[in-house]
Amino acid sequence: MKRVTYPLILLLLLLLAACGPSNTQPTATPPPLTVDQPEADVIPRPTITATAVPADAYPAVAPANTLPEGYPVPELAPAYNPYPGMDASDTQSVMMIAAGVQCEDVRYPTEQDAVAALEAAGIPVYESVTFELPVATVCGGPTSTHYQVIIDADKQAQAEQMGWEFAE
Q: What is the dihedral of CA 136, 138, 132, 158, to 10 degrees?
């Protein structure tokens, strides 16, 4: 019973305090309206005026790639080669092939077997290399072991018929 009585008494006292009589007495005339006037600035504000700047006011900007007089010209860095050790000329092509297909027999067990197959087809091989590529582990997908060779560019179509792909 006390649990119900105390909250009801508090609620009643709160209601009486909120709705009780106020201490202010009503007046017959309303107070005069005052309009807020801006106050005078105590801190002086700077004024900005546009002025014309003559064309020769600033020195001309020197190009960033000029070197001081007598300074040796640096050598250019060699171009990035994505296939290190395999430099093909303009008349050569870089070809690559997977060693085989996953879950099946390996087509070329070694790099020498891949080179021998090309040379047996009449395609001279100038350089060869074995490397690994990340592949999905799934039957029917290529193996991660790949072979890369440099051959004559005019033999590229013949190598593509054998399953080789252009690598550059």
A: -110
Helix (H, G, I), strand (E, B) or coil at 142: strand
| Structure tokens, 92 | 């050569």
Closest of 125, 130, 129 to residue 158, by C-alpha: 125
pLDDT digit string, tens, across residues 49-63:
777 777 777 777 767
Chain position carrying tokens 């252009």 = 166
| Beta bridge partner(s), residue 130 | 147
Tens-digit pLDDT profile for residues 30-43: 777 776 766 666 67
Q: What is the pLDDT of residue 15?
A: 78
Q: 145: which DSSP letter?
A: E
- Where do the domains of the chain lie, and which CATH numbers do they carry? 92-166 (3.30.70)
Alpha-carbon separation of residue 6 from 1, 10, 91 (angstroms) = 9, 6, 101
Angle at 167 between CA 163 and CA 168, to 5 degrees: 145
Q: How many helices (H) and strands (E) does the chain have?
A: 3, 4
Cβ–Cβ < 8 Å for 122, 100: no
Put simply, whether the predicted model's pTM sits higher than 0.85 gets the answer no
